[in-house]
């Protein structure tokens, strides 16, 4: 069966890094017999410029018809003054919501070769392997009512709503526990149950879910403490499960433990295992178009796509292995460069991964 992949490069460095991913997918097709069909679409600021919407209908139809979506990044200075309802970021939130991608998996894995690229001491981060499971289609990102209103005295007041149903909490909980079962068998649920009622419910529901997973150890942590523990002793974590906003914040923090946000992939899955795959970094407008961006997070996102949606586990392993090997060879984009290494650009890094794959296929 030929799987369909919707390819949405987006803005900023998105097109550069996604074209490296397409190179790799082409290689997996020609050398390893992978059967996929790729079709590109518009999303984000570029989509707004061409169609007036950051998530055009044509992209929605393409994404719905595909088995998986590969996304680059959205956003840029150019669109920052647009109304929030049509900003590039809305395109990303809309596709997550439209496809029901409630489970966002963000693995923070330290490649040993990059231990010295982290701002933390190597002994603090060596061997780090955390999976952040972020709820992605609910919480304060989507809660109603929301907006900015004008009070009787003429003063403006902004408001958003943090809201979760039990069913939304339990389904993300089950995803986290299922993943923990295949890893270190520990789940840490992050909340702010000492202040926010909504996350007090979150904690109660997680405790209920844990009853069906007696082999998994559940712990709870307030989000402020979790942020501190992530930089103090990150190796205490195995799987972290948390709400949309807390997951957004903690995953950027966890990313830096691994040396660079340019190394972190993600998968966003719906109930049927359909997924969207994207690097967790943004569109980095400051380096866009200069061939400096690290494509590895996007290539590792392709590996997640192979693993979670296409069920091509050996190919996923092969690709992750290839990334390991180019790091072994000392190739480094500027974000992960340290003295004595071989500094390369976006396309050179992609080509090096393709070369390793070709060699392995022989
Ligand atoms: C992320 C990003 C997005 C988010 C933005 C671009 C809307 O920061 O995927 O982490 O906040 O979810
Ligand atoms: Mg973020």
How many individual helices? 12
Which assembly state applies to the chains in this document? single chain
The count of DSSP E runs of length 2 or more, i.e. the number of strands, is: 14
Sheet bearing the most strands, described?
10 strands, mixed
H-E order: EHEHHEHEHEEEHEHEHEHEEHHEEH
The rounded Rg comes to 20 Å
Amount of helix: 40-55%
Return residue spans where pLDDT drops below 50 for at least 5 consecutive residues: none
What's the number of domains?
2
| Helix/strand/pairing category | alpha/beta
- Unique ligands: 3-isopropylmalic acid, magnesium ion
CATH class of the largest domain equals: Alpha Beta
User: Terminal Cα separation, in Å?
Assistant: 24 Å
Nearest-integer average pLDDT: 96
Strand content: 15-25%
Task: Describe this structure as you would to a colleague.
The chain is α/β, with parallel strands linked by helices and 362 residues long. It contains twelve helices and 14 strands. The chain folds into two domains: 1-102 and 270-362, Isopropylmalate Dehydrogenase, CATH 3.40.718; 106-263, 3-Layer(aba) Sandwich (Isopropylmalate Dehydrogenase). It is 41% helix and 19% strand. The strands form three sheets. Strands 2-1-3-12-11-4-5-10-8-9 form a ten-stranded mixed sheet, with helices on both faces. The chain has a two-stranded antiparallel sheet with strand order 6-7. Helix 8 (223-232) packs parallel to helix 9 (244-257) and helix 10 (296-308) packs antiparallel against helix 11. The longest helix is centred in the first third of the chain and has 19 residues, at 14-32. The mean pLDDT is 96. Bound molecules: 3-isopropylmalic acid and magnesium ion. Magnesium ion (MG) binds next to helix 9.
